Amino acid sequence: MLNYTIRRLLMLIPVLLGMTIIVFSIIHAIPGDPAEVILGEKASNSSKEALRKELKLDQPLLVQYGDYLKKLAAGDLGTSIRTREPISAEITPYLAATLELTLVAMAFAVFFGVNAGILSAWKQNSWFDYLSMLIALIGVSMPIFWLGLMEQWLFALELKWLPSIGRMNARDPVESVTNLYLIDSLLSGRADQFWTVVKHLILPGIALGTIPMAIIARMTRSSMLEVLRSDYIRTAKAKGLSQMFIIYKHALRNAFIPVLTVIGLQFGLLLGGAVLTETIFAWPGVGRYIFDAIASRDYPVIQSGILIIAFIFVLINLLVDLLYAAVDPRINFK
Amino acid sequence: MGSTLLEIRDLRTHFVTDQGEIPAVDGMDLVIHQGEIVGVVGESGCGKSVTSLSVMRLIPQPPGKYAGGSILFKGEDLVQAKEKRMKQIRGDEISMIFQEPMTSLNPLLTIGDQIVETLRAHRSMSRKEASSQALEMLKKVGISRAETILRGYPHQLSGGMRQRVMIAIALCCEPELLIADEPTTALDVTIQAQILDLMKKLNEETGTAIMMITHDLGVVAEVCHRVVVMYAGKVVEEGTVREIFEKPRHPYTQGLIRSIPKIEEDVKRLYSIPGNVPKPGSVKEGCRFAARCEHVMDKCLHSLPELVPTTSPGHRSRCWLNTIEEVAN
Questions:
Q1: How far is the alpha carbon of A11 from chain B, nearest alpha carbon, in Å?
Q2: Less Cβ crowding at N or C end of chain B, within 10 Å?
Q3: Which residue ranges in chain A fall short of pLDDT 50?
């Protein structure tokens, strides 16, 4: 198991190296000039030239790439062209914001998705089954931005139950330690702040979690249906075990492996690709951060940001693979 | 012979399909006494397994449906019993083992867990007590290294070992009736003999009655006291093992026995009963075996004979030939 983990971690190196090459080539293929974006269209040619020189953008691409790799190997993610701040420090609060939102969205998606899937499979062809699968179908086909806007209109504007945008009241900021506001507000002993943070998380959490929830529900249902027909479930019934016990102890664990795969993939996708939700809910997350960097041709931020997301994505998939072994004794990593 | 333990009377288990209702079990009668091993024999699709699952009330409903008859277990009708009562009965008073030991155990739970959960579902005992009883059970079914196996998973065991584990699970609550649905079909011949010996031994030691469902007359000859032969959802003949093997009265039973290859005979071609088992419900009137019978008469095509006693006590057969013989006598 340890051997396997180390081997998988070592395999990260070629994967990430490949990522740097792809990202580096793509962003340099995008038309646009960072110097012009920073200095504005009216800047003189000589000042743009000077800035390019300063940022080493006048060097050949291979040299630029080599420099970038050298710094990366030393653990330096580079400096933002826009803000002149080191990226590693700058990106942390954005990553934390995204992580917090993603965790809430996935918790919502897993809880409702898995349970709806179980109930649908158990009561196959009942009204509950039809209803939840209809909701799941609508869920996967609904555009996130539309769902987000509808939520804001109903719950923030009309009913005034929940705040429509942001992570927190701007006038009452959370004292940052981990940048995960749920934890930070508790660390500073402010229950009122904690509730405000929770309220801010609900609408974007649901918007972001709806598609994964629908996918997880459908996956759980089909996987459960297959398991419920298996011989060992018949054995469990013949032993006189209760229905609940059979479903949760015998069936769910067996049905969970494909579901686990989907959860891992969705988790990775949300971490990197929540730009739409983050934009609609003015959520200061990493998706927005990279999006803004692309708009201003902030090459180092784009490169390092995407690299970090790829890194997390691969790491989550490794974690899922290791979890298989925890769920299924037949899986043994040698 | 003990008193009556299980009495199935005119049981009808149907399946509702797009093509209409299919009578998989179509008027089944069976009696099992305490401590008795009764073989239920027949070809695939004759309703043996459906009968056994009906007794456990494990027929999925829908599409399954009890269309009539009763299953009296110690006088209590299981067809009418509440689901809560059935849960008490299953695994405790009646338990069951299945054909496929490779897939009948949950692959993700340890052997110990799977025995312990059965004990704890029916007896109020601590996990520790249940665990030590599970260990005893494993030793009883002839598993060496029982301590290791208890912590092991099904995929680490061979088919024969898994079937032993299944038997341990089935017998851990000392049931009065064990339903064994083709317990040796999926096993190697040498392992088959071991499992049959084990079941016979446990029957003698514990007095658990066994309903042995099989298509293998060899299994019947090996372990059973009495045999019931099924054809197309109905019993066609019943009697002691000796009677059935020596003086089979129903042409179907005669055919089954003739199709057992004999080592002392040198034949070019083995005997087989011509034709196939009719689809359930396809024969509407007359004897269900008529289409394949060598002795078929006009009468057979129109009216169904009753299961009537023959000249030997306890031996009954469902054939017009018997009635004719009696008249002739």
A1: 30
A2: C
A3: none
